[in-house]
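Async update (no meeting this week)

Hi team, since we skipped the sync, here's where things stand on the single-chain job. The sequence we agreed to prioritize is pasted below, unchanged from the tracker. I ran it this morning and attached the output directly underneath so nobody has to dig for it. Comments welcome in thread, and please keep replies under the output.
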Amino acid sequence: MEPRYERNIDEISDRFDDSLNAFDQANLFTGPSLYFHQQTIAFRKTHLHVTEAIYDQSLMEALYATLTAWGMHRMGKTQAKLCDFHRMWNSFKQAAEFLQGFENYRLMDLSENEISTITAAVWAAISQLEVGIGQVKLVGGAKALHHILPDLVPPIDREYTLQVLLGNKRIKETGWQEFALVFPQLHQMARRNRERVLQALAHRGGMNSSATKILDNALIGYRLLKKQNTPAPAVPLEKAERGRRVMQTGIPTTIPEQILIAMQQLTTAGKMRFSRVDIRDTLQIQSDVFNASYNPIIQAMRIDQPGGAPNIAPKYQGVFRQIERGVYELTEYGLKLIGRIRSK
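Output:
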């Protein structure tokens, strides 16, 4: 996963509950888009097996209505068109046996070793389905398959999923390249926010209808928050934060030095493994400031950083390593730097 993708998952996870709140407050899905979605999910829950669900005409008609209400079919000269209902339904019937093999999988339960195989297999399913008119399979296929396999496949769209996770809305050819990047990221979101997803599923209503829809809602809410609170450029934020710390301590520390100080405090407290949130909370820095100015420096300080991070002084490179997604520990060199701080 490229560095910017990893930072996106870090930021979304940091603001997961805030993002869900923003989604709920925006109330974007009302009327037919909410009603038919809830009807489709309710029909799906009445069937134990995928094949039974696919052969339920009431469910498939509700799905067809949901896709229309979700903007997949528009009148006039536009590329947003669904194919004929019976053509779509027949494609699901033809794929039913293959889809049956996915019915016991949940996105949040997949291991790191499974995700590449499941990504390819889910795409093979999407590519078999006939939902929209045209060669692009990604959006229509994912939204349709979400309602048949709601524990495994999140809905995917251009405005939120692709824009947040890939940084643009472009889809090449059928959409396989984009899906191969996005689906593993959604898997990471599900694993890292498992408890918060389950809590939202238990206590939030409306469009919070499944674990994978909650991931989608968090992406939408995160995008809304970013639009509402676009952070100022990194340089002014960095200067403002450094000025605040100079006033507090009298020591004009750089951002790498501040991060080292936070690590020293964390290790002194016995916390040898830490997250970016731990560093942020230790430094008492607001999220927007931290995300804009500190996250890129943390990336540059990793011994295993894969490139794309800003240039920093060699003294601060190779300070810590990632031991699992979002969790870090100091390297031997990093421990020596921390020891120097303690000796001052």
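Quick observations from my side:
The first helix runs from residue 3 to 14.
The radius of gyration is 23 Å.
Reply here if anything looks off.
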